[in-house]
Amino acid sequence: MKKEIINQEQNILDKTVSEIDGIIKSLGDELKNNTTKDVLLERTNRRFINDYLDARKNPYFGRIDTYEDGKRETFYIGYTSVAKDKNQDIIYSWKSSVGDLFAQFHGGDGNIVIDRGQKEKYDFNVLLKRSLLIEKLKVKKYSDTVSEQAREELGTEEDSVLFDDFLMDILDGRNNETQLKDIVMTIQKEQNEIIRLSIDNSIIVQGVAGSGKSSIALTRISYLLTRYKEKLTPADIGILAPNEMFISYIQSVMPTLEIEDIPQFTFKTLSKSILKNLDIDSLTDPINSLSGLINGDPADINNFKSSFEFKTKIDLYLEEFKNQFVHNIKEFRYFDTISNTEIILSRDQIINRYEDLSYLSLVKRNQEILRYIEKWVDSLLQSKQEELKKEFETVTNTMFNGIPKTGSLRKQAYESIEKVYSYRQKQLRDELNQKWKEYKSSWETFDVYSLYKRILILENLYHGKVTTVTAFKKHLEYDDLAPLMYLEILLNGESKQYQHLVVDESQDLSPFQIFVLKLLSKSMTLLGDVTQNIYVEKGINDWSYLIENVFFNDKVRLIEINTSYRSTNPIMEGANLIARNANLNAPKIIPIGRKGDKIAIEKIYDPIRLLENIIETIKSLQKQGFKKIAVVHKDLRKSVSLHERLVKQFSSIQLVTNSNQIVNKDVIIIPSFLTKGLEFDAVIIPNASDRNYGENELDAKLLFVSLTRAQHYVKLFYHQELTTLLNGIEIPKVEREEEDYSFL
Ligand SMILES: Nc1ncnc2c1ncn2[C@@H]1O[C@H](COP(=O)(O)OP(=O)(O)OP(=O)(O)O)[C@@H](O)[C@H]1O
């Protein structure tokens, strides 16, 4: 049966490939015959030809069979849709509604409703879903899932071939050229559900290390762009990553998912679009402050500024400033020397108008109320000028009654009165203008930086001596970005710049930062893992806090994934052990079940031997086919010092010292905190001693992150005593070469 099906599928594949060839040829012919040089045709056909040439290499990875009105229909699903005559699909994209169907069917009665919103709702009766592994246009493997109806009525059988074998083959690969891979073909049920959720609500994905969060993040963007193509452009979505190195890491998979035009930011670079007058590039990255802390340098880190409590404080201060502002509103008063009366725009009138403008942002409201007063002053000036004019006309009319029309007396008198009139006009204008100027300059303005400075001083968080705003701005730090962005949004009004933001490694952001992101975007996908929050005091240790305080329990869904695909069973068992020994509030990782070597552990007696051992381990791993190898030390200082010594003997090793660096070598030395989100074939930890990794949360998380970066192999060395975080791990007995003391 198995062979028969593979043969059948091979025949269909061969036919499909020649059909694609035919389509490409006719598109090419159309181009040749395009004598009128129709630009649209030129562009469309070229794009189709490129897409189809690409699709031809591996046209599809599955099929789905449905049964409707006694008729069986088969749809093939691939990365790209391929259409005959430009609109008749012969292969459907994984992002289409048929792609949704393929993703959603996991057996059962086969009745599936695909509801993509916007009236796109379909009922299907599925018989069969077949996953296909095609390599170099040869069908290699398949796996079937059939509905109950198919099994009973049509006698279609489920084949016992496990498609998981294919997933395992991919995960076992040791020499991946690309960094992150796309997972469209081997996507798992729980991952798929997240990718295809509607854009309307926000979601939080708590996924253990290696559960595919980054892969899901990118695949979801690709899916959303297609599903909502009528209302979304790439610029409407943004992806937020922890640092530039991580951005370049995810970029490798972007072209295959067709999402390379999606704006990519770190929190710092995103803040540039809001805080336009601040030199953001000069702010120290948070990872560097953390690096100092890990190095053991005394760090002046103020966690309060990142906290949600600070956001609440800002709200209170702003309310107070607003009340003060209203309290300080003064009437506009002008003494009219013509009528010898005082003309007043009363405080109540101004406040009433101010209340009417409450729908505006603070800055706009401020501008608007000033404009209202200015208009009032203008019309006062006009009416007074009118009065003067009338007075002048009356005077001249009554005065010149009976005085001869010709003659110098009349002329002289007229000129004198006119002079007086002009003088009074000017006097009126100048006086009112002067009054207005004084009034306006006494009017309070809302400037983000001045207000923020006031808040910091009131909160005793500012100890600088500077007085000017320019000087104050130079003292700002990374942790000031979220409060400043928040203030800016409060003052100038909320504007949802994005339809959707996808935030990877979101556990490293503070609740305040996430709140600000929420103000900028209609909905969000936050992906993270609380166990990997190395900003222990600031980041997210508990999603429920975020759900209650930032999302107010509204329009947000928490989804957990505990299966990990990256590492072998022994590596994940080691990671679980660390979390348990450190009493971390961590979900237990369920490894996908890949076999592998136990974590190798070796005691170091002689530091010089350690260098040789590391080099030997690297060389032996390379011989075994491992490509990307990372020597992950705990802190930066030790990494630099280890690199200085190692590079003398092993020149092709790159030291990674900061998160903006381009990694271009396969073997690197990198401090633990910079490995967040990355993945290597093998990881070597030079000293997992109890001195380096104590039983505290930060050390436990750093060791946890370091270990879980490895796909296949981990080797730990330690000096003196192994960290108690690994208590309970099996330590292979290594026969130590007896040192030769015979000559003594
Ligand atoms: N369905 C899948 N099919 C094939 N490979 C997968 C699948 N899901 C995840 N992987 C692989 O597992 C590894 C881990 O994925 P990814 O880096 O996206 O996980 P993560 O949850 O972001 O990890 P971390 O939080 O530890 O950084 C990657 O090599 C990815 O290609």
Automatic annotation (TrEMBL):
The keyword ATP-binding applies. Residues 186-568 form the UvrD-like helicase ATP-binding domain. It comes from Mesobacillus boroniphilus. Gene3D superfamilies: P-loop containing nucleotide triphosphate hydrolases. It comes from the Bacteria. Keywords: ATP-binding, Helicase, Hydrolase, Nucleotide-binding. Pfam families: UvrD-helicase, UvrD_C_2. GO terms for molecular function: 3'-5' DNA helicase activity; ATP binding; DNA binding; hydrolase activity. PANTHER family: DNA HELICASE IV (PTHR11070:SF17), UVRD / RECB / PCRA DNA HELICASE FAMILY MEMBER (PTHR11070). GO terms for cellular component: cytosol. This is UvrD-like helicase ATP-binding domain-containing protein. InterPro entries: DNA_helicase_UvrD/REP, P-loop_NTPase, UvrD-like_ATP-bd, UvrD-like_helicase_C. ATP binds at residues 207-214. GO terms for biological process: recombinational repair. Transmembrane segments: none annotated.
